[in-house]
Amino acid sequence: MRLELTDRPVLIDYSSLRVHRPISRRLAGRAGQRPIVLLVACALFLSMALLPLPRSLVGLVEEVNPLEYKMMEADSETIVESVNRHFSPEAFGTGQGDSIRSTQGLKSSSEIARRAMIMIGILLVAVLLWATEALPIGGTAVLVAVLMYVFNVLSPQEIPKAFMNDSVLFIMGILAVAVGVSKTGLDKRIGFLLLSRIRSAGAFAFIFIPLLAVSAAFLSAHALVALLVPVLMGVYKATCAANGVKQDRTLAIFLLLGLVFAANIGGPGSPAAGARNAIMVAYLADAGYPIGFGEWMKLGMPLVPVLALTVGAYMYVRCKPKLLVRNVNPSEAVNREVANLPKFGGKEAIMAAILGMLIATWVTLDDRLGLGGATLVAVGAMFVFSIISWRDVRRGVAFDVVGLYAAAGAIAVGLSFTSGGLWLATRILDMLPAFLSEGDGLVMGISVLTVLLTNVMSDGATVGTLGPVV
What pLDDT, on a 0 to 100 scale, did the predictor assign at position 244? Predict the structure, then answer.
């Protein structure tokens, strides 16, 4: 490239120029493409597949009626027998205690223990890739399916069933319902109505935050936050201008972080608050402890307003003395927005009716329809009334996230069947101090571990990781 001093404009072809990044940065990569992490994941998995087996794992698969292991085949006394009966039923007799007809195709204790270790390796690789985003989220889900298939953890017919269960349908359906709520403007109306009666900082802390938290137990917390952040920014600017203040950092923290904290608090309220809840519903059902929508609400919903009031009090005590503005009145700004809303009716009213009936069905008929079945009925109704189109679903539903939860469910099935989850849980308990290995101490220890993990990976990935072990 040659530049000459001239009065005429000089055109430079930058397309031929290449920017060479240092090799360290190229290896570090970016989200969805991190070569170093992929190499670490590969080495981790190979170590689980090739290193000598722990004696305790071999002993577990040979143990007669191991505690807390649910035999897939009823006539089995050991994990070895259960797995062999499952994959080679023709080698056994028809009654309990019958001798083996043929040893052809049967796996030894070491081979079945190795399958459990491989399943633990799949879990660890998935955790590493989800935490670092070394692969796209959907790519990791596909990798889990491939590894389970290649190493014959489950049969080719069982792997799709492990990935697609009622909880996955519920997750996919609730994301589609959120699209309908947002498209009709129902979420905006609900958010504005919550703010329209708030005329002071105290009302914001002790009325708005609890009401929003309860709403976030049924509506998408992400959607509510995305909707209300611009509104509260308008409240912030109007309040500062009305009080002759150029900016008030404490007021911004009080309004915006209070909003985010309130949305998070809605999580325990119902299974609809997040896909992580649906995953745990599936785990409990697989473990033989099914929990319905109403039963979950009886346990979780009372916690929501208590936590919300606690957080509201904390924000009020922490921020109110430091506010530069004399008063905070969100209703002034919001009421103007409420006046501009279209009249309630049409598709918005239909969407409100569908949402109300869906919640009622979850509470009363979840045993018959399941969470996923009831949600798909609601999605079907949204299509019938032209509230959403398939294009809206493709744009609004993050199918890679659905894949994450499906893979988490499949990992749980694999860990349960191979006994890898039971062995891992036993090893972890053996390493814990006595006061953390049972009772309230165990609950507290699991809670602390969960809190730490959710700061480096998503809630869903954390539940998918810890759920089977817990």
Answer: 84
pLDDT in tens, 52-84: 999 998 888 888 888 767 777 667 788 888 888
Predicted pLDDT of residue 402: 85
Number of separate helices (H) and strands (E) present in the chain? 24, 0
Letter string b/e over residues 211-236, b meaning 16 or more CB atoms within 10 A of that residue's CB? bbbbbbbbbbbebbbebbeebbeebb
Q: What pLDDT, on a 0 to 100 scale, did the predictor assign at position 206?
A: 93
pLDDT at 199 over 70: yes
Burial class (CB in 10 A: 0-12, 13-18, 19+), 17: exposed
> How many whole angstroms separate alpha carbon 278 and alpha carbon 412?
13
Give dist(CA 156, CA 231) in Å, integer. Answer: 51
Least confident of 175-179, 413-417, 461-465: 461-465
Q: Which residues contact 185 (CB under 8 A, 6 or more apart)?
A: 341, 342, 348
Q: What six digits make up the tokens of 119? A: 């399943």
List residues bridging with 92 in a β-sheet: 100
- β partners of residue 33: 30
Dist CA 336 CA 328 (whole Å): 16
Cα–Cα distance for residue pair 114/126, rounded to 1 Å: 18
Cα–Cα–Cα angle for 259, 264, 269, rounded to 5 degrees: 120
Report the DSSP beta bridge partners of residue 438: none
User: What gap in Å lies between CA 379 and CA 376, rounded to an integer?
Assistant: 5
Which stretch of 296-310, 388-402, 429-443, 455-469 has the lowest confidence by average pLDDT? 455-469
| pLDDT score of 351 | 92
CB within 8 Å of 61: residues ≥ 6 apart: 78, 79, 80, 83, 109, 112, 113, 116, 419
Of all helices (H) and strands (E), which one includes residue 180?
Answer: helix 166-184
User: In the numeric block, which tokens belong to residue 373?
Assistant: 């079945």
List the beta bridge partners of residue 30. 33
Per-residue pLDDT averaged across 31-58, rounded? 87
